[in-house]
Amino acid sequence: MNPDLQRLWRGSLNLFLLFVRLHLWRIHPRRFLTDLKAIPIRKPIFLLGVQGGGLTLIARMLRRHPDVVSVTGNASYWAGPDEMQNVMGPILPPALTGLHHKIPPHPQYPERDWLYAIDELLPIYRKTSADATEEMARQFQRALRIALAIHARDASRARFVDKSQTFTVRLSLINALLREYEPHFVLITRNPYAMCLRAATRVHTFQRLPLTLEERLELAAQHWANSFRCALQDAEEVQYFTIMRFEDVLQEPEQQIRELCAFVHLEFSSEMLPAPGDRFPLGSTGSSRGDHKWYPLRLDVNRPYLDALTPRIVDIINSRVEELARRWRYTPEGP
After folding, report:
1. Can you list the positions of beta strands (E) in 19-171?
2. Bridge partners (DSSP) listed for residue 25
3. Which of 189, 322, 161, 304 is nearest to 248 (CA)?
4. CB 244 within 8 A of CB 256
5. What is d(CA 325, CA 319) in angstroms, rounded to the nearest whole number?
6. How far is the C-alpha of 55 from the C-alpha of 186, rounded, in Å?
7. pTM
């Protein structure tokens, strides 16, 4: 077959299977033939942070574990969508959605990527244990059980993994809704000087707004700082919580993932790590176009942004992030 036609065919098939995966939870027979209340929820794992912060890479490594399940698949489908807030938004309570489903209206910010935690929108999205209700817990637990019923190879061993970033400002609420099932939370940081400049110059949400670069940087810094402050505040009432620096994962992937597996009670396997020859399953978010979020690991992922910093940009970002940056040993020069 002509190589161009082969790529076109594979890309089209990938998009079709991706669509199927996104909506499988709606139509899969196991959702309707299984007694969902009998499906156990065992120590669900939530990766927290901000978009572009390294969550995708770490989630993919966890999802290659044979006992791990996400909202769209198991270890045989480890590179597809993995955010409840987007995939299962229609059946989640509004307090757990808000990026693509049930978005609270706002005249200036119709889109919410890298915006839901800015000063103006945070009061809408910020939820804590005080907001938890029995009905909300029932809806949330049912969504997890649907994913487990559909995708778990062995329901008695299955572990659910998710990386919905808005849960970062709702950690206390998530913990309250699942407290009896011992949820585990992993907060993933990445250099805020690189992250904020990356967001201000690359995130489509900002590019569509009539803002100057300085205004975009200010919003990005608000979003980054508010997200992590909320998570740290909520962590005080959470039993299972840890922090990982994305840069450390890039430098020492095996050691870091071993430590992560120990924390979340999974047996480490070297097959979880990126390796040459790995191929994305069809229907994945990256298989049709090639995806840099796997192998080889890019150790200099922050460098283009850090090299583009100016004193003025650093001042704008520092006004919001300096305290947390110092806490995690981040500087404008690098970790």
Report:
1. 45-48, 68-69, 159-162
2. none
3. 189
4. yes
5. 11
6. 10
7. 0.96
The correct answer on CATH 3.40.50.300 for the domain covering 14-327 is yes
Cα distance between residue 93 and residue 56, in whole Å: 24
- Ordered by start, the domain boundaries in the chain are 14-327
| Strand ranges across the sheet with 45-48 | 68-69, 159-162, 45-48, 184-189, 241-245
Q: Which amino acid is at 6?
A: Q
Q: Do 287 and 281 form a contact (C-beta atoms < 8 A)? A: yes
SS3 82: coil
Q: CB–CB of 247/188 below 8 Å?
A: no
pLDDT tens over the chain, length 335 residues:
677 777 788 889 999 999 999 999 999 999 999 999 999 999 999 999 999 999 999 999 999 999 999 999 999 999 999 999 999 999 999 999 988 888 888 888 988 999 999 999 999 999 999 999 999 999 999 999 999 999 999 999 999 999 999 999 999 999 999 999 999 999 999 999 999 999 999 999 998 899 999 999 999 999 999 999 999 999 999 999 999 999 999 999 999 999 999 999 999 999 999 999 999 998 987 644 446 689 999 999 999 999 999 999 999 999 999 999 999 999 999 87
DSSP secondary structure string for all residues of 185-240:
EEEEE--HHHHHHHHHHH-HHHHTS---HHHHHHHHHHHHHHHHHHHHHHHTT-SS
Which tokens hold the place of 274? 């990126």
The tokens 């299962």 sit on which residue? 88
Query: What count of Cα atoms within 13 Å lies in the side-chain half-sphere of residue 323?
Result: 8
Phi/psi for 161 (5° steps) reads: -125, 135
